Hints:
The protein is of the alpha/beta class. The protein has 13 helices and eight strands. An eight-stranded parallel barrel has the order 1-2-3-4-5-6-7-8, surrounded by five helices. The structure holds phosphoenolpyruvate and manganese (II) ion. Manganese (II) ion (MN) binds next to loops.
Amino acid sequence: MFFKTDGRPFIAAGPCSAETREQVLETAAALSQIGVDLFRAGIWKPRTRPGSFEGNGEVALQWLKEVKEQYNLKVAIEVAEPAHVELALWYNIDVLWVGARTTVNPFQVQHLADALKGVNIPVMIKNPVNPDVDLWQGAIERFEKIGISNVAAIHRGFSTYNSSSPYRNQPNWPIPIELKRRKPELPIICDPSHITGRREIVADIAQKAMDMGFDGLIIETHPRPSEAWSDAAQQITPQALQTLLLELVIRRQHTEDMSKFTELEYLRQLMDSVDTEIIDLIARRMELSERMGLVKKECNMTAYQPDRWREIVETRGDRAASLLLSKEFIVSIYEKIHDESIKKQLAILQREQNEVKD
Ligand code: PEP
Ligand code: MN
């Protein structure tokens, strides 16, 4: 398995863009000393607006060939068109990645997969820009289906309109976690560079990814980051990468310590019974909600009562805060519960109308 390393994270690093032959070779020289698993460099850049640097194209493939020959590094590029795939194969690129803006488009993803029929090259698929786990899974499966046996997912965060967010792309961790639940064998690599957009917090997100059990990291690296032609604010020097990797705490999925294992098992059993209680309580709440629906039906009242909902948000939020729980978190759970209650009550009101019609 190309992306599986024994107990340590798979590390891909390299510049956002291959800018010049010198910059590519200088970065590769430094990274080969650190011992990364894969050298990344974009040669066709999906830029938001025209006029910014859109990559050097084919000429940069020659530079990557030199990286392979001189430094014995495996190299990866982004492909967004079947023509890119053809050129990448022609120049013996080792690994391909599909960018976030391509993953959103199943037609384009299928075109790329079709261009790879009969070729078994490792492919990394970035999450789509919108937080849609099905779309991400679908893109991955298009490559698996044509016979690519080494597929990895890259979590690079999701677009947000929230201008106060500290991140360039919101991490939204439950999405990659759900992908891993659905596909336990799929390696998931975290891209803290594109999540953060700021080199100062790249290491924090890299550590968080390790704490969550991600399989690897892809980190943008440039000899002079602030002079980079693209993504200047998020790239780090090879030296900074080396420090980041040295300081990274690698956690394990399991423990051989029997007493800790037993303690965890005990806590899990307690948690199982708390969860059973939570579900039983929700069932009781729904039952009350249905009884209220019947009363509302008799009085010809609406299912949704804005004042009552406001009161629920306030009191449950305050209760959460008094127990040191996040208000926002508890209210978001109540939004779901309330929505389900209203659905049940609407069904009761609807039943009334149908009975009248009959
Ligand atoms: C990149 O890796 O340089 C890139 C363009 O990434 P994304 O598709 O995640 O925006
Ligand atoms: Mn980039």
